[in-house]
Write a structure and sequence with these properties.
alpha/beta; single chain
Length: 276
């Protein structure tokens, strides 16, 4: 019986199944706290299964705003964080709450709205002027209002436009929700909205909104993976080995190639651009 089990184990290993899984041991896992945009766009469905197949490490995903994801990492409630809030990330790394910030992909934020464009955003010279036009027209505007990376960039744009960082005219809609839901609310209310390009394109048909902004430097949107230092917490709380394996995987050339291809169909550009 033992020899038959050994032969089966060898076969499974030859097929590429990790030894712990092949032997019936409990598969290792990690908890990834991530911004909603990489989930809502479908990117995680593209890049995580090959990681699990190769390593046997299961990835549990909690998708929240970047602010909440970073806070989970700071508290030790996640093993790894993906976020797109560079200033908040840098602060936490400087404090030692997170470590080894590695940018791995980017796209742009877009300012989108109803095709009728009542605030005449289409003719704006840049993103700041677009925000000024929306505010001057007191047009319907959907904001996540949740300290996500998108909300943080939105506040910065409003400040650059010489406006209070939190819009407060009667047409402002605070969703407190993820990007996909916020885009759908904006579509239903025919409102303007700031969104990452990947989520906007993924939900464009459902929201029936139009993107008015181009690749403005002020709208550059960088995604990074950050490790949670295991030494800050009790032994065994952070799955440091598994988290590092995923962080390394995200910046591998083969993974970056997957990211470069993701969403590129019928001549459309990819949803994300990998960073070397």
């Amino acid at each position: 019986m033992a020899s038959r089990f050994h032969a089966l184990l060898v076969c499974l290993l030859l097929l590429g199944l990790p030894a712990a899984v092949a032997a019936g041991a409990e598969a290792p896992e990690l908890l990834l706290a991530t911004t909603t945009s990489v989930r809502d766009s479908g990117l995680l469905d593209e890049i995580l299964p090959p990681f699990t197949t190769r390593t046997g490490i299961r990835v549990r995903v909690i998708a929240v705003g970047s602010g909440a994801a970073l806070e989970m990492g700071r508290r030790g409630d996640a093993d790894l964080v993906i976020a797109h809030a560079p200033e908040s990330e840098a602060k936490l790394v400087a404090e030692g709450a997170l470590s080894e910030r590695r940018p791995f992909a980017e796209n742009y934020f877009v300012i989108a709205g109803p095709e009728a464009d009542p605030a005449h955003v289409k003719g704006a010279a840049n993103a700041v002027e677009a925000i000024q036009r929306i505010a001057a027209a007191k047009a319907p505007f959907a904001t996540r209002g949740d300290e996500s990376g998108t909300h943080q960039r939105e506040r910065k744009l409003f400040e650059q436009a010489g406006l209070p960082p939190e819009p407060n005219w009667p047409g402002v809609l605070r969703t407190g929700a993820g990007m996909g839901q916020t885009l759908q609310v904006a579509g239903e209310k025919r409102a303007y909205v700031l969104s990452d390009d990947a989520s906007f394109r993924a939900f464009r048909a459902r929201s029936d909104l139009v993107a008015f902004s181009g690749p403005d430097p002020s709208l550059l949107n960088v995604y990074s993976v950050l490790l949670v230092p295991a030494g800050r917490f009790a032994a065994g709380r952070i799955h440091a080995h598994e988290a590092r394996a995923l962080a390394e995987y995200l910046v591998e050339p083969t993974t970056l190639e997957r990211i470069a291809r993701f969403g590129a169909e019928r001549g459309a550009p990819p949803l994300f651009r990998p960073l070397p």
